Amino acid sequence: MRKEFLPFSPPLIGEDDIAEVVASLRSGWITTGPRVERFQEDFKEFIGAESVLALNSCTSALHVALAALDIGPGDQVISTPMTFCSSIHVIEHQGATPVLVDVEEDTLNINPARVEAAVKANREVKAILPVHLYGHPCEIDPILDIARRHGLAVIEDAAHSLPARYRGRMIGTPSPDDDVTNLVAFSFYATKNLTTGEGGMLTGPQEIIDQARVWSLHGMSRDAYKRYTAEGSWSYEVVLPGFKYNMPDLQAALGLHQLKRLPEMQRRRRQHVEHYNEAFKSIEEVQTPTEREHVESAWHIYLLRLNLEMLNIDRARFIEELRALNIGSSVHFIPVHLQPFYRDKYGYKPEDYPIAYREYMRMVSLPLSPSLTDDDVDDVVEAVTAIVERHRK
Ligand SMILES: *Cc1c(COP(=O)(O)O)cnc(C)c1O
C-alpha cells in the first residue's frame, strides 16, 4: 500500500509559472493588464477562436455569455443534469429557467434527440447550454443544427475540454454554421487541465465578446488598464449594470507558460488513461470510459463505472476503501436535479433523469493529472484491483 495519500487532481505548476507570477508582482501591475492581453492572444491562437475574453472563472464566462445574449426572465435554457451546479446556476442568476434533459449512456453527455424534443415541448427556449463532460465533446453538430432550425444560441460549457476536438475542429473555434450564435466557456480552476488557480475564458464572435467584456467589468465601456495608463484617460461611461468578473494579471501569469506546456501535459494525461484502460479492461466488475471515433477527448476526468450487481459493496464504500488505501477519488457529478435547491424549486424526482441518476450511483473519478508518476498510476490500479477482489460476489 502507498505510504502517502495520492490526491485526486494535483496541479502541475512549473518554475516558469512561478517566475512569471513573481515578475507580475514586481512589475507593479497586478490586475487586468499586459499579461492578460498576452494570455488572451495566445489562447485565441491556440484554439483558433474568433475572439476571446479572459475572466475570473468559467462560471463568470457562462454568466456574461447569457447576459450578452440578453437571456433573462421568461426565457428557457436547455441543459443537462450531469454537470457542475454552476452551469445551471448562471441560468438562475439571469432570472431565466433551466430545462434539463437526460444524457447519453456511453459519454453521459446531453442527448441531442432529447434536446430536440425539449425545444418542441417548450415555448420560450432561447438557448442550449451543453457540457463537454469529462473532456469528451458532446454531439455538438446535431445540437448546432437544432439551434439553427429553431433560432437558438448555443453556449458550450467547455470547463473540461481544453483541448478537445470534434470532427477535427478544436472546441472553442467558431461554429461552422454562421447562422448560430455560438459561445464557448473554459475553466482554469485549480483542478482543470490548465489552471490559473481560478480563471476562465469565453470564446465567440467579436460582437458578442465585446458586449460580454462590457458586462464583465461594471458595464463600463473601457477597461481599467486602458483607463489608468498612458493609452487612456480618466473618462469612462457606464452603459450597463455590469459584474466584476475580470481576470487579473497575477492569474494570467500562471496560464501563459502552461498553455505552452499543454500539448506535453496532454500527452502525459493520455498515457495515464491508456495505462488505466489496459489495466481495467479485463476486470468485469468495472467499466472503462469510451472515446467516440470522431472526437479527441481532453481527458479531464477518468471515470470508472462500477458494475454494482457484481460487487457486494456500493460506490460510497468503494470510495472509502480507496481512501483507506491512500488513494483520493471523487464523483462527477451529483446530478443537479438531486440538489435540494433545484429539487425543491422544480419538484424533480431522481428518476426524472433515469440515465443520469443510475450512472451517478455507480461512478468514481480516479486520480488523473500530468503530475502523477507511472508508480502513482500503478498504485491506483493495485488499489482498485484489490478492492474488486475483496468484494467480488
Ligand atoms: C469546474 C466547472 C465549472 C466551473 O468552473 P469555474 O472556473 O470554477 O467557475 C463549470 N462547469 C463544469 C462542468 C465544471 O467542471
Structure description:
With 393 residues, this protein is α/β, with parallel strands linked by helices. The chain has 2 domains: 15-256, Aspartate Aminotransferase, domain 2 (3-Layer(aba) Sandwich), CATH 3.40.640; 262-391, Aspartate Aminotransferase, domain 1 (Alpha-Beta Complex). Helices cover 40% and strands 13% of the residues. It contains 13 helices and 13 strands. The protein has a 7-stranded mixed β-sheet, with helices on both faces. α4 (85-93) links the parallel β2 (76-79) and β3 (97-100). The longest helix is centred in the last third of the chain and has 32 residues, at 249-280. The mean pLDDT is 96. Bound molecules: pyridoxal-5'-phosphate. Pyridoxal-5'-phosphate (PLP) binds at residues 57-59, 83-84, 86-87, 131, 157, 159-160, 187, 189, 200.
Quickly describe the structure:
This protein has 13 helices and 13 strands. The protein has 393 residues and is of the alpha/beta class.
First and last CA, distance: 24 Å
Integer count of domains: 2
Radius of gyration: 21 Å
Per CATH, the architecture of the largest domain is: 3-Layer(aba) Sandwich
Largest sheet: 7 strands, mixed
Q: Provide the residue-averaged pLDDT.
A: 96
Please name the fourth-level CATH homologous superfamily of the largest domain. Answer: Type I PLP-dependent aspartate aminotransferase-like (Major domain)
Top CATH class of the largest domain: Alpha Beta
Shape: globular
Estimated structural class: alpha/beta
Number of helices: 13
Q: Any idea of the CATH topology of the largest domain?
A: Aspartate Aminotransferase, domain 2
Percent range for helical residues? 40-55%
Q: How is the largest sheet built, in terms of strand order? A: 1-9-8-5-4-2-3
Query: What is the beta-strand fraction?
Result: 5-15%
Which series of helices and strands comes N to C?
Answer: HHEHEHEHEHEEEEEHHHEEEHHHEH
Pick out the low-confidence regions.
none
State the total count of DSSP E strands: 13
Bound ions, cofactors and other small molecules, one mention each: pyridoxal-5'-phosphate
